[in-house]
Amino acid sequence: MAGSGLPSLGHVKLTDLVPSEGLASESYKVSVSTLSQSLAQYSAAIIQFPASDGALLRSGLDSARLYYHQRASCPATEMMHTNDSREWCKTSGYYADPQLWLETYDYRPGLTHNDPNGVLEFPPAGLPDIFALLGKAARDILDAVSFYLNLRSSPFTEILDNVPLRNRDISSSVLSVCCNARTSFQGAQHHNLATQEDGQLVMYPDHDHQVDKSLISIVKSDKAGLHIRDIHGRWIEVDRDLGPQEAIVYPGLALYRATAGYVNPALHRTEINSVPGNMYGRCSLAFKLMPRSMTSLSCSEMRAAGHGVEAQFQLPVSVDDFMQRSHPTDQLFNRQNIQCFNFPTAQDGSMKPLMRRRKNDSRSKPLPPSKRLRLEAQRVLKERVQDIADKKGIKLRFCNLKECESHVHTLDSPCANIRMEIGWPPGVPFVHPHDLPNKAKIGFLEAYEPGWTATHDMELSLTEPGQASQRSANCNCNSPQVSYPHCNALCIRCYL
């Protein structure tokens, strides 16, 4: 591990991750830092619930064992798992997957389970209370990750279910009561024998690993056996020494997509120990915080926060399409994510993530004007435009560049009111400055940075020694409005 890394899986109290008004407390900063480091290194963390909530989780596991103990050993054919990705937001009730030796009871608020045989079945007890508990915890954890990434408060609210659900709404998130390797369950013949340790037969399912398509997943089990792959490719058993009030949290594919790959999803697998004392199997409660099906996963919040967004994440993707699409895991981990999670405190008391920066090198060339323009425009958007929008209660929704070129000439365009209320520069498309042409960036900066031209002309010019006279000779701009008499270098507007 790196010197600043965690020696083991991070432990965080859920009460320390609950956001509050005002400045962030020291305990919140430390908890967010620990959580973020653990997710980066191990793709998982341990969350400690209050004592009263821990009792609810334990009773839920007891109810799960009782529920599966009284079930028939061989499920009906219509209850077999079909792996139909089109049904990702419609599962409810009991399902079985003999290939994985797994039984699941899905609880989804707003969707009533109807037994195909017309037999009245009592579900495991306490599911509504457990769903509410884990759902609130998952949202707090998601907000903590957003805080670390320097995003706005609750940036994913628009893609999450309403709290509470409205009439006729069906929850996208789901609470699954799972049972692995119940002795009386038929399906052992479908397993591969992996290894033998300490005289116990250890088996893994046919698929070596799985990845959830959730934003955040929280798992509480009654026995160890959950393995997650860390940043170095090693499989780590993350729930071996869990306390009665602790659960495992890990990110999923939807969060990976919404954060432009800055948060890697967890690859996990479940170990099955075939021993005489394991007759009830391994029971677990698994909550998955899912995005709503009628929304889109977009990286607009990441761009607004100044993060770089690679080409593969530029276009929004429909949640329903995302859930039905296959995602080869060997293509997901192609970038080294943020390694350090310290939070240096600025002089004004604000907290900003520590981003990796290039070391100062006297031999390095200065940034070209177009690069400096882009960085300056992003800074102005963050400090000026966002402040104006916040004070007026405006939610910034930037247009597509090509579409907005026609919007600026009409009064009834989708962005007309926003442009007028925040004083957007006339004639400049209402898009993120990162996407603006360089000449439009100049107009943007001149509108929000009084005196910008006078103070930045020298700074934005190419000033490498020995080249000033050559650039001056190449400058064909004689207009006093765009030339810089006091600058011997090529003027920025001619360069562009």
Order of helices and strands: EHEHEEHEEEEEEEEHEEEEHEHHHHHHHH
The SS-based structural class is: alpha+beta
From the 3D structure, determine the CATH topology of the largest domain. Answer: Jelly Rolls
Tell me what portion of residues adopts beta-strand conformation: 15-25%
Quickly list its features.
496 residues, alpha+beta, Jelly Rolls, 2 domains, eight-stranded mixed beta sheet, four-stranded antiparallel beta sheet, 29% helix, elongated, IPNS-like_sf, Isopenicillin N synthase-like Fe(2+) 2OG dioxygenase domain-containing protein
Q: Would you mind describing this structure in some detail?
A:
The protein is α+β, with helices and mostly antiparallel strands. It folds into two domains: 11-323, B-lactam Antibiotic, Isopenicillin N Synthase, Chain (Jelly Rolls, Sandwich); 369-460, no CATH class. It has 13 helices and 17 strands. An eight-stranded mixed β-sheet has the order 1-2-12-9-15-5-4-3. Residues 187-206, 334-364 and 457-496 have low confidence and may be disordered.
Brief characterization of the structure:
With 496 residues, this protein is of the alpha+beta class.
Helix and strand topology:
Layout: E1 11-13, H1 26-42, E2 45-48, H2 51-69, E3 93-97, E4 102-107, H3 127-148, E5 174-180, E6 192-197, E7 200-204, E8 210-211, E9 216-221, E10 226-229, E11 235-237, E12 246-251, H4 253-258, E13 267-270, E14 272-274, E15 282-289, E16 296-297, H5 300-304, E17 317-318, H6 319-324, H7 369-392, H8 401-407, H9 416-422, H10 438-448, H11 452-460, H12 468-474, H13 492-495
Parallel strand pairs: 1-2
Antiparallel strand pairs: 2-12, 3-4, 4-5, 5-15, 6-7, 7-14, 8-13, 9-12, 9-15, 10-11, 10-13, 16-17
InterPro entries: IPNS-like_sf
Protein name: Isopenicillin N synthase-like Fe(2+) 2OG dioxygenase domain-containing protein
Region (Disordered): 346-371
